């Protein structure tokens, strides 16, 4: 949830360019997905089962790159509220926040857990 904050802050006076950032994020995601699939197929060419080892190295390299990039992002500290729980309860008093929270719990929680824990015997 912090990603939009970190990605909007560098735009400063051009918040309308956030759509361009999202577009390039999608292009990058799609490119890495195709690269990952190609790596798996290339290294599993003559094997009976797929070899996912290149994906592990790809993830490790992106994690190292992410650590380097994230460590160079300037962090601005904000003044903490004295009544955090009151602010949270006030936030959950709004219908659109409650409906979004319930939808996220259902879609990401229940449905994802069913999909991830269902074993094809």
Write up this protein:
Pfam families: MFS_1_like. It is found in: Membrane. InterPro entries: MFS_assoc_dom, MFS_MFSD6. By secondary structure, the chain is an all-alpha fold. The protein has 5 helices and no strands. It is extended, with a radius of gyration of 20 Å.
If you compute it from the alpha carbons, what radius of gyration comes out, rounded to the nearest whole angstrom? 20 Å
Helix content: 55-70%
How many distinct beta strands? 0
**CA-based shape:** extended
Strand proportion, as a percent range, falls in: under 5%
String of helices and strands: HHHHH
Largest sheet: none
What's the end-to-end separation, in Å?
36 Å
Quick tags:
mainly alpha; 121 residues; MFS_assoc_dom; MFS_MFSD6; single chain
List the helices and strands and how they pair.
Elements: H1 3-8, H2 18-43, H3 53-71, H4 84-91, H5 95-117
Helix pairs in contact: 2-3
Compact overview of the structure:
The protein has 121 residues and is an all-alpha fold. It has five helices and no strands.
